[in-house]
């Protein structure tokens, strides 16, 4: 769960920076958010979550 919140905050900050620098328009940000919600409801959500969890575990093992 912590990884999901961290990824959400990271992507939110990146979107905010792009919007602030006028490199990402509001319409594009809305489409990206809608894509995320649709992806979450698809069958691809579980493999993506597993992949991100494995990456987080690998980084954690390297850091310790």
Short précis:
With 64 residues, the protein is an all-alpha fold.
Question: Could you characterize the architecture of this molecule?
Answer:
The protein has 64 residues and is mainly alpha-helical. Helices cover 84% and strands 0% of the residues. It is flat, with a radius of gyration of 14 Å.
Comma- or semicolon-separated keywords:
single chain, flat, 84% helix
Please indicate the percent range of residues in DSSP E strands (runs of 2 or more).
Answer: under 5%
Q: Main beta sheet: strand number and arrangement?
A: none
Classify the secondary structure makeup into a structural class: mainly alpha
Mean pLDDT figure: 78
H-E order: HHH
Radius of gyration, in angstroms, nearest whole number: 14 Å
Intertermini distance: 20 Å
Compile the SSE list and pairings.
Layout: H1 2-20, H2 26-41, H3 45-63
